[in-house]
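Async update (no meeting this week)

Hi team, since we skipped the sync, here's where things stand on the single-chain job. The sequence we agreed to prioritize is pasted below, unchanged from the tracker. I ran it this morning and attached the output directly underneath so nobody has to dig for it. Comments welcome in thread, and please keep replies under the output.
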Amino acid sequence: MARIGNIDLGDFPLWLSPMEAVTDAPFRSLCKQYGADVLVSEFVSSDAVVRLAQKTLSKMEFRPEERPTGIQIFGHDEQSMRRAAEIAASKQPDFIDLNWGCPVRKIVSKGAGSGILQDIPKMVAVTSAVVRAMQEINLPVTVKTRLGWDASSKPIVEVAERLQDAGIAAISIHGRTRAQLYGGIADWSLIGQVKNNPRMHIPVFGNGDIDSAQKAVQAKQEYGVDGILIGRAAIGNPWIFAQVKHFMQSGGELPAPDVEERKKVCLQLFQKEIECKGERVAAQEMKIHYPGFFKGLPGFKPIKVKLMLSCSLQEVQELLDSYSA
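Output:
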C-alpha cells in the first residue's frame, strides 16, 4: 500500500505525470475520470508564485474531484522555493511536489529543474528548507527528478537516500539523465536499485516510456516500484489509465473507445478548456491532443490536418461530425 504522509494511494497508484501546457485542470479531471489515481499541477515557477503573478497562481487551482493532488513548484533559490511552497499550501493540496527533473534549457540554465543535479548539496539544502516549512502545517513534500546530469553522472541511488533523509515523503524518478532529454530509452534498472535499496523506506515511483498496460505491469514486476507515472502516453489518450487497470486486474486488454466516445470526450475537453482559458487559447492547446484522440482511425488523416488548423469549437464539431469509420 503506497502512502504519501497520511494519504492512502492504493496498492499500485497510477500518476498523471505533470506536463507544462498539458496537465491543466480540464485534462487532469478527464484523466481522473478514466482512472488516474494521483494528479499533479503543471509546474509553477517559485519566483512567479512569490510575485503573485495571476497566470501562475491560476495554475495552482484544482477541483475537489481531483484529489489526491499535488502542486509542483520549480526554482533554484531556497527562500523563494520555501515561500512559494507556503503560498501553494494555502490552496490546500494534498502534497507539494518539487520539480528537480525538468530538462528544458531555459529552466536548467538557471539551476532549476534538472539543472540542480549539478549541485546535489544545494538540491538537498533547498529540499530540506521546503520540508521544514511544510512540517509546520503537516503537509507532505515529494520530489520528481532524474537519474543524474549525464551518462557519466547518475547518482540517483545516493541522491534518493539524501532526499529521504531531508524528509521527503516520496520520490518519483524519470529513468533518463538531463542530457538525454526525452530521447533514448529510459533506464529502469537504476530506478529499481533505488526501490530495492534497503535504506529506502519511502515510496518510489517510476517514470519513463510507459505507453502500454504491458509495460506498466513489467515495471511493477521487474523493478518493484510502488507505482508509475504516465506522461506523454496520456496526451490525447486519457483512457490509458483504464487500460492499465483493466490489464492488471484481468490480464486482458481493454480496447480503445469507439469513434463516438472519442469524439464526445474530445469535444468535452475542448469545452472545459474554453471555460478555463477562452476559445482562442483552448483551440491552440487542443492541437496537442488530436493525434492521440483519433490515432488509428481509418481515413482520418484529412480530418486531422483540418483539425490542426481549426480555431473554434464549432469548426471542430463540424469536422468530427463529418467523419464516420
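Quick observations from my side:
The mean pLDDT is 96.
Residues 26 and 272 are 6 Å apart (CA to CA).
Reply here if anything looks off.
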